[in-house]
């Protein structure tokens, strides 16, 4: 734990020196799933000297990838049987099923259930027995970066939470797991399953995925409806967003405001709250309430049970928005994209 007087937040942040890798060194970890997070956790743990078994279905096309990465592969049930720690890294929507069929029957007292997101525990879709530890180590980054950073002796920031501590060692073991995948090199923030789940869902809905795409589409539509060209609308409302976000990522809102013109700064400061006004704030509070009271979770679970009818429709409508066709054409005409970046994105897609 590092005490820093200049810190303005009260969260605990852990680094390498706070973790005792011995807490995991003698354990066997079953990593269920070999997708974005699974392939990174499995390889990083293994290279940190931890005994790893990857749990995949007999017919999973990820099997050959895991094997050629030098890892032992078993069925999820066999991996869970052998393991002391079961790291559940299949998609959140299939976790309850995998848990019920392959994990629950094979958990021993004192084993650990380990997650990278709190949804199924927080919303009671997985109800573990009382005699196991339940922890979360959630890298705040896609899996391909968790892997690449580890290979480059760099870290990936992460979160650590303990939901259930049956053995008394859950926290130390979770921190050792975070160290073994490289997270304590960068810093690991202590949180709870509830906080991680609710802030994650709210963030992706209100700001990151939902809010920002609505802002982009409405900005685009406003310009096009007023008679401006779709190309100009695309550049102004979508393409330039990256430049602005990169500046905010690097140095906060301040670096962005410092980098744009005074005209852009003045106009932005006066008009931003006109567009995203107190109604947007009230709507955000409603979105948060549905996350907190479980309404969103219930809706998403029954949407999946029904075979995703609305989800499929919404996806199609989003794909068919005019901005997508305009963007595809423009991105083909202008060579501003870094091809290296594109390759990385592709290699991050590991399918089931
Ligand atoms: P993913 O979709 O990339 O990969 C899931 C893998 O699970 C597949 O590649 C396949 O190997 C396996 N799989 C799929 N269906 C299966 C089934 N029915 N039975 C057994 N195995 C099956 O998943 P992901 O994005 O790595 O997510 C895993 C967990 O990590 C989730 O809890 C997610 O919320 C969390 N997480 C993801 C990210 C991210 O950036 N992707 C970041 C932080 C946390
Ligand atoms: Mg076991």
UniProtKB/TrEMBL annotation:
| EC number(s) reported in the record | 1.1.1.86
Report the GO molecular function annotations: isomerase activity; ketol-acid reductoisomerase activity; magnesium ion binding; NADP binding
Pfam families tied to this protein: KARI_C (PF01450), KARI_N (PF07991)
Cite the active-site annotation: 117
What are the KARI N-terminal Rossmann domain coordinates in residue numbering?
11-191
Enzyme class at the top of the EC tree: oxidoreductase
Instruction: Name the catalysed reactions.
Output: (2R)-2,3-dihydroxy-3-methylbutanoate + NAD(+) = (2S)-2-acetolactate + NADH + H(+); (2R,3R)-2,3-dihydroxy-3-methylpentanoate + NADP(+) = (S)-2-ethyl-2-hydroxy-3-oxobutanoate + NADPH + H(+); (2R)-2,3-dihydroxy-3-methylbutanoate + NADP(+) = (2S)-2-acetolactate + NADPH + H(+)
- Which residues take part in binding NADP(+)? 34-37, 57, 60, 62, 143
Q: Which residues bind Mg(2+) 2?
A: 200, 236, 240
* Cofactor comment text: Binds 2 magnesium ions per subunit.
Pathway per its UniProt entry is: Amino-acid biosynthesis; L-valine biosynthesis; L-valine from pyruvate: step 2/4; Amino-acid biosynthesis; L-isoleucine biosynthesis; L-isoleucine from 2-oxobutanoate: step 2/4
Per UniProt, substrate binds at 261
Record keyword Oxidoreductase present: yes
Q: Does the keyword Magnesium apply?
A: yes
Q: Please report the stretch or stretches of sequence annotated as the KARI C-terminal knotted domain.
A: 192-337
Q: InterPro entries from the entry? A: 6-PGluconate_DH-like_C_sf, KARI, KARI_C, KARI_N, KARI_prok, NAD(P)-bd_dom_sf
GO aspect biological process, one term:
isoleucine biosynthetic process
- Protein residues bound to Mg(2+) 1: 200, 204
Q: Which cofactor does it need?
A: Mg(2+)
Record keywords, A-Z: Amino-acid biosynthesis, Branched-chain amino acid biosynthesis, Isomerase, Magnesium, Metal-binding, NADP, Oxidoreductase
Q: Function, please?
A: Involved in the biosynthesis of branched-chain amino acids (BCAA). Catalyzes an alkyl-migration followed by a ketol-acid reduction of (S)-2-acetolactate (S2AL) to yield (R)-2,3-dihydroxy-isovalerate. In the isomerase reaction, S2AL is rearranged via a Mg-dependent methyl migration to produce 3-hydroxy-3-methyl-2-ketobutyrate (HMKB). In the reductase reaction, this 2-ketoacid undergoes a metal-dependent reduction by NADPH to yield (R)-2,3-dihydroxy-isovalerate.
Question: What family classification does the UniProt entry report for this protein?
Answer: Belongs to the ketol-acid reductoisomerase family.
**Protein name (record):** Ketol-acid reductoisomerase (NADP(+))
Q: Which organism is it from?
A: Halorubrum saccharovorum DSM 1137
**Lineage in the entry?**
Archaea, Methanobacteriati, Methanobacteriota, Stenosarchaea group, Halobacteria
């Amino acid at each position: 734990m590092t005490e820093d007087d200049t810190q303005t937040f009260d969260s605990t942040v852990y680094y390498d020196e706070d973790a005792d890798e011995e807490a995991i060194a003698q354990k066997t970890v079953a990593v269920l799933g070999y997708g974005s997070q699974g392939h990174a956790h499995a390889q990083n743990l293994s290279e940190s000297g931890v005994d790893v078994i990857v749990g995949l279905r007999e017919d999973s096309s990820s099997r050959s990838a895991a094997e050629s990465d030098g890892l032992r592969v078993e069925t999820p049930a066999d991996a869970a049987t052998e393991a002391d720690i079961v790291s559940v890294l299949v998609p959140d929507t299939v976790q309850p099923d995998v848990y019920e069929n392959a994990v629950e029957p094979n958990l021993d007292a004192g084993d650990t259930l380990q997650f990278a997101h709190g949804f199924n525990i927080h919303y009671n879709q997985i109800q573990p027995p009382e005699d196991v530890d339940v922890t979360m180590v959630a890298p705040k980054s896609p899996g391909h970066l968790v892997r690449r950073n580890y290979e480059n002796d760099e870290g990936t920031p992460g979160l650590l939470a303990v939901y259930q501590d049956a053995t008394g060692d859950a926290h130390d073991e979770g921190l050792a797991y975070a160290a073994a995948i490289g997270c304590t090199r960068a810093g690991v923030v202590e949180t709870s399953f509830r906080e991680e789940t609710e802030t994650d869902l709210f963030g992706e809905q209100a700001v990151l995925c939902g809010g920002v795409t609505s802002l982009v589409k409405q900005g685009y539509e406003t310009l096009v409806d007023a008679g401006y060209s779709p190309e100009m609308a695309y550049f102004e409302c979508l393409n330039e967003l990256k430049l602005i976000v990169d500046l905010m990522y690097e140095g906060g809102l301040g670096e962005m405001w410092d980098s744009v013109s005074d005209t852009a700064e003045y106009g932005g400061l006066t008009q931003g709250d006109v567009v995203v006004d107190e109604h947007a704030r009230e709507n955000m509070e409603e979105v948060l309430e549905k996350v907190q009271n479980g309404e969103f979770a219930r809706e998403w679970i029954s949407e999946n049970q029904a075979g995703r009818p609305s989800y499929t429709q919404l996806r199609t409508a989003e794909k068919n928005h005019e901005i997508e066709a305009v963007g595809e054409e423009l991105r083909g005409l202008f060579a501003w994209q870094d091809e290296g970046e594109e390759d990385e994105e592709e290699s991050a897609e590991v399918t089931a």
